[in-house]
Design brief:
Elements: H1 2-13, H2 16-24, H3 32-51, H4 53-61, H5 63-68
């Protein structure tokens, strides 16, 4: 509750452009190497999740069954 009140008071006291920069960061400073690195890491994470999808689902639903199936929980 204190955080919400502080955020509301801060947003009322801050001007529009400064508020957007404080909440979301200054998006004009994003360089291509950073964007390419972010996309590469995101693609690798999605590929890892898709490749281990069944093992992850079994481990989340029932760790006991996953251990029985030989999946390291």
């Amino acid at each position: 509750m204190v955080f919400s009140a502080a955020l509301a008071i801060g947003s009322m006291l801050t001007s529009g452009e400064d508020l957007i920069d404080a909440l979301f960061g200054h998006t004009g400073t994003l360089f291509w190497p950073e964007a390419v690195f972010g996309m590469a890491v995101s693609t690798a994470i999605v590929a890892l999740i898709v490749s281990h999808k069944n093992r992850l689902i079994i481990a989340v639903v029932s760790p006991d069954i996953a251990r029985t199936a030989g999946i390291d929980v």
